[in-house]
Amino acid sequence: MPGIYIHVPFCESRCAYCDFYSTTLLSHRSAYVDIVCRELELRLSELQGAPIETIYFGGGTPSTLTIEELRKILASPLPLPRRGDSDITNRNSPPWEGLGEATLEANPDDLTEEYVQGLRTLPFNRVSIGIQSFHDRTLRLVGRRHTAQEAIEAVHRCQRMGLTNISIDLMYGLPGETLDDWVYSLDQAIALGVPHISAYHLTYEEGTRLWRMKEQGIVSPIDEEQSIRAFELLREKLLAAGYEHYEISNFALPGYHSRHNSSYWQGIPYIGIGPGAHSYDGIDRRCNLGNLTDYIATPEGKDVPHEVEHLTTEERYDERIITELRTARGIDLDSLLVDFGERYHTHCLHCATPYINSGKLIRTTNNQLRLTPESIFISDTIMRDLMY
């Protein structure tokens, strides 16, 4: 089933590493919410009657929205799954009843007791908390607003109040971070008992504050050897703690894979709402322009400013390679043959053969092509070689 992604562009302040579209113009929240509701109503016809299974509020910092602003968005008419013989979208049911997964990204310092209580009155059954590090000096360096202790308290508060399906984000390769620092952060994350952990290697994106600091010699990237060892430690610690490594950057306890994000990797269509949000219908990709001023100026009855890219067969094949090879499941070669034909199937196997022979790829008995644990860190190179 398809999902809906809602991009909330607001942040109290910008983190030094972030290159996602965001703005600190929090005074525009009310106008933004109005246009989000209008865009939802206008574009739900793109689903062609298919019910939605997941909603994901990403950002930016979605927890900058008030509970009432979130409630207003979720009060929009949504095509939801049927349960048995009764249609749960009837007028006597809450408009969001029936959602399989509803996720809100949040900063730790926004998750006050009052705010978490408010979330419990909404359909959110999952929260994704951006922690990044459990070292205060590192958090200050990259511009995070919370402390390590505040992050721990936010997780405990959510757990205590019944919001237990929690994902936390961590980053490794941060400036000045040692392997011992990284192990400490991993140990702290595991001790929290959260069922999902996303871990990303820091990248210095051009135009960000951290990129400028690197150019000025204020900070330096860690070397490749330390990057590889940090990734190895990530896998060792989390696998030993019972987490499944189900996607390159994502680990979950059994039954806690992100259903919304997994749909991206499976090529399932979704609608992206809000400035800077992306959508995919199986053939075309749409990108709402990342400009809040233009977004909220959209005339009533008109679609918001956006661009559409029609994907060729070659581009869709390349996307299949990139998204499926990221996952523990890997590339389904039988589906690849059905969806793209003999030419692309043969190309994939021909390019994969050297990696299979060298032990960097595995062709399973059920005809799937997977990365080996040792090759995950060079996955970008393997993906490029398998693309058309």
Distance between the termini: 29 Å
Number of helices: 14
Number of domains: 2
Structural class: alpha/beta
In short:
By secondary structure, the chain is α/β, with parallel strands linked by helices.
List the helices and strands and how they pair.
Elements: E1 3-8, H1 29-43, E2 54-59, H2 67-74, E3 101-106, H3 113-119, E4 126-132, H4 136-141, H5 148-160, E5 166-172, H6 179-192, E6 196-201, H7 209-215, H8 224-240, E7 244-247, E8 250-252, H9 259-265, E9 270-273, E10 278-280, E11 284-288, H10 292-296, E12 306-310, H11 313-325, E13 331-332, H12 333-340, H13 342-357, E14 361-363, E15 368-371, H14 379-386
Parallel strand pairs: 1-2, 1-9, 2-3, 3-4, 4-5, 5-6
Antiparallel strand pairs: 6-8, 7-8, 10-11, 11-12, 13-15, 14-15
Helix pairs in contact: 1-2, 6-8, 11-14, 12-13
List keywords for this structure.
15 strands, alpha/beta, nine-stranded mixed sheet, single chain, 37% helix, 2 domains, globular, Arc Repressor Mutant, subunit A, 388 residues
Describe the structure.
This protein has 388 residues and is of the alpha/beta class. It has two domains: 3-265, tm_1862 like domain (pyruvate-formate lyase- activating enzyme, Alpha-Beta Horseshoe), CATH 3.80.30.20; 312-388, Arc Repressor Mutant, subunit A, CATH 1.10.10.920. Helix content is 37%, strand content 18%. It is built from 14 helices and 15 strands. Strand 10 (278-280) and strand 11 (284-288) form a beta hairpin. It is globular, with a radius of gyration of 21 Å. The two termini are 29 Å apart. Mean pLDDT is 92; it is low at 84-93.
